[in-house]
Amino acid sequence: MNDSYRLSLRLLLAVTASTLSLAPPARAAAAPDPDTRAADSDENQQLADIVVTAQKRPENLQKTPIAISVLTADAIANRHVQSLNDLGDGAIPSLKVAPFYSRNSALIVNIRGVGVLSDSNQPARDQGVGVYVDGVYLGRAQGLGTALYDVQSIEVLKGPQGTLFGRNTEGGAVNIVTKKPSGEFHLNTTAGFGNYGAYKGEAHLDLPAVANVSVKLDGLFTYRKPLVKNPLNGAYGFNYFDKRGLHAEALWKPIDGFSADYSFDISYDASTPLYLQLLAPPTAATVKTAAIATLQTSRATTANVGVPEQPSVGKTHGHRLTLDYQALDQLQLKSITSYRQLNQSQYDNGSASTTMITQVKNGVADFTGFNFSRYSLAMFDQNQFSQEFQAIGELPRVQYVAGALYYQENVTDNAQAFATNQFTNAAGSAYTILSLDYAAQRIDRASHVKTTSVGVFGQAIYTPPVAGDILHLTVGARWTKDKKKGQLFTINGAVPSVNGVKAPLDLNSSWSRVDPLVNLAVDVTEDVHVYGKWSTGYKSGGANSRSLFYAPFNPETLSMFEIGAKTEFWDHRARLNLAAYTAAYKNIQLDFSAQYQQFDAQGNLLTTLRTTTETYNAPGTGRVKGIEADFTVTPLSGLTLNASYAYNKVSIPATKNPFRQSDGTVIAFPIPIYPVYTPTNAASGSIDYEKPMNGYRILAHLDGNYDNGFYVNYNDPSFDGKTGTVLVKQPKGDKSLIFNGRIGITDIAVSDTAKVGVSLWARNLFNEQHLFYKSFTTTSGTSGFFNEPRTWGGEVNIRF
């Protein structure tokens, strides 16, 4: 795979070089990139319009009655965003992106506190925030960390998007829009370097149109050595990545009003997990930590024990065909067909510190022969096909969009975990590496699921002939039917055994629902727009592959009412957008430890079964409420200031664990439930300055991002079910304030057709450190993940 990518990138560069020599000068002297427009005219002292596609048609952000935050291509470059994972620092306060536990190979995405509470890293489970690229839904948490191609914008749609986007958008949607072929010759290349041995390269080549076909080629690679060293020679360190990708797109316009846009992409994403640090020892008198399990209370540069570790590798490729036909002056028909495939391996041995613990017997703890360092492996294969049809049109006083979607997904996974290290003395100060034979290790769990979803949707915006056409009423609805069919082959290392019967467990469940939307917008003035919206969304039902019974659970739902205002003033040099919302959160999918009373074939009670994990739709209604503000102003030519703030409060009813525990008891009292990956207060601010000079342009960017910390586990580590007393409260992550910066000189003319730019960038500029993930149990102590240290680098960009 590595050789094929290197060969493909060399071919792309060779095509680039040959095209440079053949391209006619007239083509090369095309209009300048809009991202590098001059900043000294009166017009450019105003804020530029931002175009979004949240309602399936291009619209001005300020006139779209939905809470949306947009990162433009310039903002993405200024923040040095290479993948969605880089948005985890809080560029958009209502959006939280984080690795799934320690795994960079799967991402958690959360908007307004809604999206994920439990383990979505499974075949029959979903997240509640949809991620789309050019209109195609990406069905899995795995694969979301791949490098981003030539992105035009990232739109974050906040709140339920069930009507136009469908299932798994109860929290919102992340809509990534890439740059399209232009039909003119352009070349944009970037080479960069950074600390921790980082380097990157990008090439984006637009070819002149031939026979009404425009072609665009993109190639990229980005690499960084581990941030935490592994003492074991020959093993990979922690938090390393190697991302590569190729993308080709052809846009055919044979006649006016019709286009066929075909896109192919292929990517390789290798990464190692985060390093889990031991912050405080266990408090239970029945356990003891090994001598080598040293505490590391600040961000570590070297792990305290060497362990086998290798990269988790994700390989994805996909095809998309978008047909766009202007059937009538006021009717556009669109078809989006897509097929994607994902293969993801996961190797996680970053938690050795928290496994170097043994039981105390007769007051003595002897570590000799004790195995530790749990290596968690998972293999994940997925393919998906989707077909969407849209009709986008206008009637007198009505704008409408209607359509239908078919989606099918096949997912297979397995997981295993085993110890890789063994202590060789009583104190636990010396160890050896066990012989690794992956094939000989048992498979702990394995399953396969086929998901089929169909939906029909429609939405209309009516402008009545009153009050000068200032009112706009939007009404829409979507009907969806989901079906999941699959099998759990293995659980706890064996064929599932229920009441003396050993056999794979089947899943065959379906759900259907309607998600409505009503929105009333008022144009108070040309520059002041207010709205009130009610909408719903849901996260699909499914099954838990950690479950012994593989029992299905139902969808969870969110019904939200939102009011907002979008305003511009000071001659379009200032923009203030506000939103406030409240929502009912129902049938929340929660995981609980479970142990069933089971009987063998003769009716004898079985008492030696392991505790498993079951998913349960909690009774009662939770609440989600908050406010958001986004302010942008350009007080001087070339200077842009931005400030964003989000207050978000999620309340989940205390819920009783309905399952029997391993000691045979049933918990009698409800357990407090915490929202996860949801800071109550989050804010982001940025300063951007551009100054045209004689023959070049200076740019500078600084952003700061704050949150007051969040929970990563939604229940307390120790709870007395007999008395309802919280014995140990769930710890919360640290508050954080991270700055990123970039300075550069661009548009340096080196020929009639070529311009060069150079820049320096830094993420976490002041090397702030905080624990974004913190966990505690009495038997394993306090552990956590620190945020990444300061990274910095330089880039050279050449554009033709």
CATH superfamily: TonB-dependent receptor, beta-barrel domain
Which regions have little confidence, pLDDT < 50, spanning 5+ residues?
A: 1-41
Name the average pLDDT.
Answer: 91
> What shape does the CA trace take?
globular
List keywords for this structure.
3 helices, Maltoporin, Chain A, mainly beta, 800 residues, disordered N terminus, single chain, 22-stranded antiparallel beta barrel, five-stranded mixed sheet, globular
Summarize the model shown.
This protein is mainly β and 800 residues long. The protein has one domain (2-799): Beta Barrel (Maltoporin, Chain A), CATH 2.40.170.20.
Write the layout of secondary structure elements.
Elements: H1 2-22, H2 25-28, E1 51-52, E2 59-60, E3 68-72, H3 73-78, E4 95-100, E5 103-111, E6 129-133, E7 136-138, E8 151-158, E9 172-178, E10 186-194, E11 198-210, E12 213-224, E13 241-255, E14 258-271, E15 277-280, E16 287-289, E17 312-328, E18 331-348, E19 357-359, E20 371-395, E21 398-423, E22 431-433, E23 445-462, E24 471-490, E25 497-498, E26 501-502, E27 505-525, E28 528-539, E29 542-543, E30 552-553, E31 556-569, E32 574-586, E33 589-594, E34 598-599, E35 605-606, E36 612-617, E37 621-636, E38 639-655, E39 671-673, E40 681-692, E41 697-707, E42 718-720, E43 725-728, E44 736-749, E45 755-763, E46 771-777, E47 781-786, E48 791-799
Parallel strand pairs: 6-9
Antiparallel strand pairs: 1-2, 3-8, 4-5, 6-7, 8-9, 10-11, 10-48, 11-12, 12-13, 13-14, 14-17, 15-47, 16-19, 17-18, 18-20, 20-21, 21-22, 21-23, 23-24, 24-27, 25-26, 27-28, 28-31, 29-30, 31-32, 32-37, 33-36, 34-35, 37-38, 38-39, 38-40, 40-41, 41-44, 42-43, 44-45, 45-48, 46-47
